[in-house]
Amino acid sequence: MGDDEEVKVFGMWASPYSRRVELALKLKGIPYEYIEEDLSNKSALLIQHNPVHQKIPVLVHNGKSIPESLVILEYIDETWRNNPILLSQDPYDRAMARFWAKFIDEKILSTTRKVSFTTGKEQEHAIEEVTEQLKLLENEVKGKAYFGGEGIGYVDIVANFLVFWFGNLQEALGINIFSQHKFPFIFEWIQKQLKIDMVDECRIPKDKHLTYIQTRLAAFKSASK
Amino acid sequence: MAGELVLLDFWPSPFGMRSRIALAEKGIPYEYREEDLRNKSDLLLQMNPVHKKIPVLIHNGKPVCESVIQVQYIDEVWHDKAPLIPSDPYQRAVARFWVDFIDKKIYELGSKIWKTKGEEQANAKKEFIECLKLLEGELGDKTYFGGESLGYVDVALVPFYSWFYAYEKCGDFSIEAECPKMIAWVKRCMQKESVAKSLPDQEKVYEFILQLKKVFGIE
């Protein structure tokens, strides 16, 4: 990479979407400038780079803005063609990887939000739903070292939320959806992920995260009264 | 290279239409199979056990689910004919961003327009038009979102045109009045055989919506 390459990431330390972008850049060895956004007071620059959604993460490469984490991951893989190659060259394998990434974002993470922000029967139902969805993911990694097969890839990066974020969240909520006993294959995959330096570098600090979640939940509860 | 290609679909589905257009653009023969969504076939349930939804593209016995994934798959396998997705990584990212935007907004807002009334419907209409205006901005002065030829964003968006008449009747508004550039773009797309043959008649879709409203007990 030349000296004239400028890579910036607008992110938020507790966001799994933001962390996956940082992980991809670190795995590819791409230096970047990280800009921490205060989501309660978004910067003018963030809004300029993502006027449509005004959300993090946003990747800015030589002045070109790319929002949406899954779009960013494919852009990173296509722009920097060094190892690890995140998506296979085979069209069918790519389709399967995209399918599971979509499933994680549109189903698992979406249902997890329901678990966080509901109570009683509604929460119970959401917990059942996300457990079923995690079982499907468990099945995908069964017998494999990585979701992609041979080495860390696109789906492993998208599934990074399981390595730190999900465990912290369920502890803060006082629930037990995910355990080694219930999901032995995902648990095994997590242990392998933790051995990768760059994954560890994207660790969400636990105590800070627990406090953050509890503060958000308290704010949500008082706002909904 | 075509091998055996089957598309499990449902005629009014804008998602199914995307794959129909992509295959037609590339001139790829396939077997179209109509699914009765109240009585899903064993094949559908077997090929898409996770979501149990159409469309499903089955290529040599292997399923590809989710319309945006299918369009990308079709473009990658039959890459030498009528390319839909740009080759430049940044242009690809822009196209993917807008397809993601369409997926997050258009179907849901459109559904609210025909399913709801009063303030909820009014808000949905307002937001729907705002989204179309953003898309008009992205189109700019281009013939198609893809430039001089149909691209990924065109294929992802144009199927919703077949639902516009239904939205307009249910919502009592005119999309053309609010977004003339969008309708001008639609008309250019509809001149292409691949699009015209893949979209059902708007009146037929409206009748279908009226049936659905009866079934769901919506006035």
From TrEMBL, chain A:
Q: Which SUPFAM superfamilies match?
A: GST C-terminal domain-like, Thioredoxin-like
Keywords from UniProt, A to Z, are: Detoxification, Transferase
For the keyword Transferase, the answer is yes
What residue stretches are annotated with the GST C-terminal domain?
A: 90-217
UniProt xrefs under InterPro entries:
Glutathione-S-Trfase_C-like, Glutathione-S-Trfase_C_sf, Glutathione_S-Trfase, Glutathione_S-Trfase_N, GST_C, GST_C_Tau, Omega/Tau-like, Thioredoxin-like_sf
GO cellular component terms, semicolon-separated: cytosol
Q: In terms of one coarse class, where is the protein primarily found?
A: cytoplasm
Which CDD domains does the record cross-reference, listed alphabetically? GST_C_Tau, GST_N_Tau
Asked if the Swiss-Prot or TrEMBL record annotates the protein with the keyword Kinase, the reply is no
Annotated family: Belongs to the GST superfamily. Tau family.
State the protein's name. glutathione transferase
From what organism does this protein derive?
Gossypium tomentosum (Hawaiian cotton)
Biological classification of the source? Eukaryota, Viridiplantae, Streptophyta, Embryophyta, Tracheophyta
From TrEMBL, chain B:
Q: Which biological process terms from the Gene Ontology are attached to this UniProt entry?
A: glutathione metabolic process; toxin catabolic process
Q: Which reactions is this enzyme annotated as catalysing?
A: RX + glutathione = an S-substituted glutathione + a halide anion + H(+)
Species the sequence originates in: Gossypium lobatum
According to its UniProt entry, the function of this protein is described as: Is involved in the conjugation of reduced glutathione to a wide number of exogenous and endogenous hydrophobic electrophiles.
Q: Any idea which UniProt keywords this protein has? A: Cytoplasm, Detoxification, Transferase
This protein's superkingdom? Eukaryota
Spell out the GO cellular component terms annotated for this protein, sorted alphabetically and separated by semicolons: cytosol
The broad enzyme category this protein falls into is transferase
Q: Specify whether Cytoplasm is a keyword of the entry.
A: yes
**Enzyme Commission no:** 2.5.1.18
Q: What is its main location?
A: cytoplasm
Tell me what this protein is called.
Glutathione S-transferase
**Pfam families noted in UniProt:** GST_C_2 (PF13410), GST_N (PF02798)
Q: Which residues form the GST C-terminal domain?
A: 88-208
SUPFAM superfamilies the UniProt entry points to: GST C-terminal domain-like (SSF47616), Thioredoxin-like (SSF52833)
* GST N-terminal domain ranges (all copies): 3-82
Q: Where in the cell is it found?
A: Cytoplasm, Cytosol
Q: Which family does it belong to?
A: Belongs to the GST superfamily. Tau family.
Q: One MF term from GO for this chain?
A: glutathione transferase activity
